[in-house]
């Protein structure tokens, strides 16, 4: 009897261990139509880990184990925005978002994945219990409208990963020549509005999430992780203007500088009001005052007299001399009979 009980306990332990070791699938559905977890194989990527038992400042090390990246594909209820790891990829924006992904082993189990989701550590990187690092993703993307349907087809391809956790920053190209490296295909469909309180723009849901081959797809956008930040592509005029404006707002937001700017603004407004009161009095006077002021100016003008305006009177001889030359002589003045 005792041997039978021991045998049952050992068998149960083996079964539980097998269940716990069951690897998570490539696509895990969290909520049908709205949330999925994609386990994207990272071909050629070393697995980064840190032995935290030896201390907090232990350097990161790597080993050649097959690994994958976790992508959280979600579509909120209240707005039509498709997100990957909380970064919007549809609708397309001029500023492409930077996306980070957690690295896990390829045999990462369903139980471990459930723990990450339960404790909210899916995008926490090296702070998770998975042991993997966090990578910045360089990716291609393209969006197509499905002909004859109110549906969008989104392709998302990771072609390079970067991590600054090791002593030397690590950059790895995801080689897809052998066809093993896959990309993510997402299909979103506009569903009918079921309530008068529901917005027509929010009526979208995810129909399909799958891993497909890269072959034959012409991507519309490319985002290299080290060439972009929250202001856009580094080195472009748009990036320079956005970063300058943001820095200026942060400068104004500082306590002391904001106080100085407020004081200078008050002084400037006071100066403008004073100038308006000094030079704008003529504009505020009525027509009678303007007419009286005009009369005073006319009386004070020295050449208003008629004789002053014409100059000195001249005799007839002088006029004749002026009209006919110095040698001429005036015979008579007046009308002849």
Structural summary, described in words:
The chain has 337 residues and is α+β, with helices and mostly antiparallel strands. It has two domains: 210 residues, no CATH class; 49 residues. 30% of the residues lie in helices and 28% in strands. It is built from eight helices and 16 strands. The strands form three sheets. Strands 1, 2, 5, 6, 7, 8, 9, 10, 11, 12, 13 and 14 form a twelve-stranded antiparallel sheet that branches. Strands 3-4 form a two-stranded antiparallel ribbon. Strands 15-16 form a two-stranded antiparallel sheet. A hairpin with a 3-residue loop joins strand 1 and strand 2. The N terminus is likely disordered. Keywords: Membrane, Signal, Transmembrane, Transmembrane helix.
The string of secondary-structure elements, in order, is HEEEEEEEEHEEEEEEEEHHHHHH
Oligomer: single chain
Helix content: 25-40%
Strand content: 25-35%
Supply the number of helical segments.
8
Overall pLDDT, averaged?
Answer: 77
The total domain count is 2
| Count of β-strands | 16
Structural class: alpha+beta
Based on CA atoms alone, the radius of gyration comes out at: 42 Å
Distance between the ends = 171 Å
Low-confidence stretches are 3-20
Q: Assign an overall shape.
A: extended
Transmembrane segments: 256-281
Signal peptide: 1-21
Keywords: Membrane, Signal, Transmembrane, Transmembrane helix
């Amino acid at each position: 009897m005792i041997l039978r009980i021991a045998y049952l306990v050992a068998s149960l332990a083996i079964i539980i261990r097998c269940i716990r070791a069951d690897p998570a699938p490539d696509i895990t559905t969290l909520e049908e139509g709205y949330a999925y977890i994609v386990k994207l194989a990272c071909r050629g990527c070393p697995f980064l880990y840190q032995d935290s038992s030896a201390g907090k400042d232990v350097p990161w090390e790597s080993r050649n184990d097959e690994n994958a990246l976790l992508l959280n594909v979600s579509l909120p209820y209240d707005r039509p925005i498709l997100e990957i790891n909380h970064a919007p990829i549809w609708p397309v924006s001029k500023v492409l978002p930077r996306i980070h992904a957690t690295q896990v082993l390829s045999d990462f189990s369903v139980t471990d994945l459930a723990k990450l989701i339960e404790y909210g550590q899916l995008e926490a990187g090296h702070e998770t219990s998975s042991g993997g690092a966090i990578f910045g993703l360089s990716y291609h993307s393209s969006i197509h409208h499905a002909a004859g349907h109110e549906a969008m087809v989104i392709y998302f391809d990771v072609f390079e990963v970067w991590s600054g956790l090791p002593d030397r920053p690590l950059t790895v190209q995801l080689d897809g020549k052998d066809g093993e490296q896959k990309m993510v295909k997402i299909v979103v469909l506009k569903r009918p509005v079921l309530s008068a309180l529901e917005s027509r723009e929010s009526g979208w849901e995810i129909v399909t999430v799958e891993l497909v081959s890269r072959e034959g797809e012409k991507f519309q956008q490319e985002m290299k992780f080290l060439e972009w930040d929250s202001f856009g592509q580094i080195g472009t005029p748009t990036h320079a203007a956005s970063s300058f404006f943001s820095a200026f707002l942060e400068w104004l937001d500082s306590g002391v500088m904001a106080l100085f700017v407020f004081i200078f603004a008050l002084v400037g407004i006071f100066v403008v009001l004073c100038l308006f009161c000094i030079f704008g009095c003529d504009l505020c006077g009525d027509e009678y005052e303007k007419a009286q002021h005009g009369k005073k100016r006319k009386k004070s003008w020295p050449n208003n007299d008629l004789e002053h305006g014409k100059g000195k009177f001249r005799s007839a001889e002088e006029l004749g001399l002026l009209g006919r030359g110095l040698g001429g002589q005036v015979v008579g003045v007046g009308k002849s009979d």
